[in-house]
Amino acid sequence: MALTSSTMLALGSRAPNFNLSDTQGRHWSLADFSDDPALLVMFICNHCPYVIHLKTALADFARDYAAKGLGVIAVNANDASAYPADSPENMALEVARYKYVFPYVYDETQEIAKAYHAACTPDFFLFDAQRRLVYRGQFDDSRPGADKPVTGKDLRQAVDALLNGGEIASDQRPSMGCNIKWRDA
């Protein structure tokens, strides 16, 4: 595990389209979220301690914002052949265990992670109704082994501002976690 920070993709970047299958075999694309005034694309996985630290809070966060108009999708881009804990079968177990209310899709080719410039798990990308990037950064400043509670403060402030027509702070701190487990070229 190599501690890695978000690449901090340029604000205003357009959301790359995707067509990825979830743990039930349904395919998801940007068009599936066209009625949502905001979309959160999260790059997570099953085994990263930084994601494990947030899993319950991520599930709660998505439930809190589902009725407010936030579309949420989680993408696992890790190489499951080298990291079997991140296989689609194990992803299905995670969905059931944490009662995710968002699709959890597998990016087997890793093309979508590359298109988003995702670097770590977790990595968060918040888009407005025109699918322009308005926030990329950390969930909050809690980390495994640290003495800070998981609140989702940073991401909640950005989502609240976006959904309420407020100003989203431009001072955004990168997310930190395990590097995405890229396939050997």
TrEMBL record:
Source organism: Hahella chejuensis (strain KCTC 2396)
Keywords of the record: Isomerase
CDD domains in UniProt: PRX_like1
Thioredoxin domain sequence ranges: 9-164
Annotated TM spans: none
Name of the protein described by the UniProt record: Thiol-disulfide isomerase and thioredoxins
Keyword presence, Oxidoreductase: no
GO MF entries: antioxidant activity; isomerase activity; oxidoreductase activity
Record keyword Cytoplasm present: no
InterPro entries membership: AhpC/TSA, PRX-like1, Thioredoxin-like_sf, Thioredoxin_domain
